[in-house]
Amino acid sequence: MNCMTGPVFVDTNVFVYARDSSQATKQPLAMEHLAVLWREERGRISTQVLSELYVTLTRKLRPGMRPDEAWDDIQALVSWSPQPIDSELLLLAREIEGRYRLNWWDSMIVAAAQVQDCATLLSEDFQDGMCFGSVRVHKPFTPRMAEESGDYTTGIARRHRRPGRPRRGATGAGS
């Protein structure tokens, strides 16, 4: 995550995994991402994320958290200045819904990231590397491409052969 710059919008699932001890692989990664964002003061959220988080922590997570304990998490995250659901956000979400053919709730997340000028949307609900205008999705639980390649964006390109004709001497069927 070191190579991401600018504000980072964090989707609900990252916060949930940070609290879910049954997720032995995802929990430490989620906690690491959040620790960096707290330290660097680059984390962004919306009131939608806070609402989803409270409901998930108290009603869906097994075992669920006590409401007052979950509320402490919500209150701490208020310091991230959550994007309110207002007419600007609704209009942008409607535009995003039509342009990208997303469901309404995902459109609201993308719109909140855009309104807050986020460079990155940290979420497992979208395809890694997908762009919505100036916001690029980063799946928080994928292999660390940044460490493999030294640069997140070029890490994606290096995973695939360049388009065009096969290289001379390439082996395969019919060679």
Beta strand %: 5-15%
Instruction: Tell me the total number of β-strands.
Output: 5
CA-based shape: globular
Average predicted confidence as pLDDT: 85
Largest sheet, in brief, is: 5 strands, mixed
CATH class: Alpha Beta
Number of helices: 8
Distance linking N and C termini: 42 Å
Radius of gyration over all CA atoms, rounded: 19 Å
Helix content: 40-55%
Q: How many structural domains in the coordinates?
A: 1
**CATH topology descriptor:** Rossmann fold
Q: Which structural class best describes the helix and strand composition?
A: alpha/beta
Report the order of strands and helices: EHHEHHHHEEEHH
Question: By CATH's scheme, which homologous superfamily applies?
Answer: 5'-nuclease
Mind sketching the topology for me?
Layout (H helix, E strand, L loop, with lengths): L7 E3 L1 H8 L6 H15 L2 E2 L2 H14 L6 H11 L9 H14 L3 H12 L4 E3 L8 E2 L2 E4 L6 H5 L2 H7 L17
Parallel strand pairs: 1-2, 1-3, 3-5
Antiparallel strand pairs: 4-5
Helix pairs in contact: 1-2, 1-3, 3-4, 5-6
